[in-house]
């Protein structure tokens, strides 16, 4: 079994020793060999090399050069049922994590679950068949297969045929113009319009607390309009909140995407950044976009959101099973948590209570190795095709149906530790939905034992 080692150490590229614990860098070592993966570097072309104009060739390049991502199982060590995502107080730790010490580093040794390629293997097979032209009539008999063919056409027509244009618009995320007043909103709008909407040829809504409005895409290259609306997902019996970006095909068939939010810690870091010179600040800002995804407050929201979305998709499939003749229910549901340049993938299986997250954060870009040199400059970045393909597969999870092997399910069943009674699961199934307002429950017979049990878990910490 492959084991991964998570380590925490202080970045050495700049004069950071002893300053700002929030700017810590996480690296992953593959054990027992000493293969080192830095999360800011990625093998692959950085300067734009001749990108094939033919979209099938582009897909072939993405499949052949796919950089796999390994997932690690996590369990909940504390949580509160019933409040919003932001109030969920969830803490997680790797399943069976063994703390080890070596020199100045602390290692957590965890058993890896599976890789993205293995979990989404049906999606890779179908993409390969599509570019090889090997789809026989028997392959497209079911409506599910038809849906996947449509999704592949959408990927080609909506995104890949115009990849250079969308890449140009998305590059502004890396270098936000000085006049932008709300950088978080700017990043959300660009990702929503030029990535998630175009990959699936679907409509998007950005969730807000205020009334519905339309706005122009901030890229200044297209004339697309972006819709804002008060939007929530969840159940008062579990958790609920606003997904930052909602991508939807129909009224209730959606993809929910989460972005991290800055907090007090970030304000401290802004003060800290002033102590560094310009080049060092650029490096630290990029690191920061990665670190913010793993802030405890953001991880808590993402886990609550991922579990809630998994229950939502289960209820959705239950409602639509008869209408669309859906078979082989999907239970492993992905949530994308993206900070602009970096992203994490949370996978939750509500049937088997298994929570997975990628071991190492993933970049949207082919990353250069930043150096503090006199001729320091940012060359033009290119989109990482492996990341693009992963987004497309996750957004089509209802048709691709990602799954773990029987052996992994057997090994990890109930490892997340969200031990909900049958009654509570039924209550969640009946109430989990998309709506504008949620009203916190008063304690009652069903939920009360869970508040007690939860306190017991928390008091053990
Ligand atoms: Zn635009």
Q: Measure the end-to-end span.
A: 30 Å
Strand content: 15-25%
Q: How would you state the average pLDDT, rounded?
A: 79
Helix content percent band: 25-40%
Structure class: alpha+beta
What form results from the Cα inertia axes?
globular
> Bound compounds, please?
zinc ion
Number of strands: 19
- How does the major sheet shape up? 11 strands, mixed
As a whole number of angstroms, the C-alpha radius of gyration is 22 Å
Low-confidence stretches: 1-48, 455-461
**Number of discrete helical segments:** 14
List the helices and strands and how they pair.
Elements: E1 3-9, E2 25-31, E3 35-37, H1 55-64, E4 71-78, E5 91-94, E6 98-102, E7 105-111, H2 116-119, H3 121-132, H4 143-159, H5 163-170, H6 183-200, E8 203-207, E9 213-216, E10 225-229, E11 232-234, E12 240-241, E13 245-248, E14 254-258, H7 264-273, H8 278-291, H9 296-324, E15 332-338, E16 342-349, E17 354-358, E18 362-363, H10 385-395, H11 397-400, H12 406-412, H13 422-431, E19 433-435, H14 448-459
Parallel strand pairs: 8-10, 14-15
Antiparallel strand pairs: 1-2, 1-7, 2-3, 4-5, 4-17, 6-7, 8-13, 9-10, 11-12, 11-19, 13-14, 15-16, 16-17, 16-18
Helix pairs in contact: 1-3, 4-6, 5-6, 6-10
Structural notes for this entry:
The chain has 461 residues and is an alpha+beta fold. The protein is built from 14 helices and 19 strands. Strand 15 (332-338) and strand 16 (342-349) form a beta hairpin. Residues 169, 193-194, 217, 219, 221-222, 224 line the site of zinc ion.
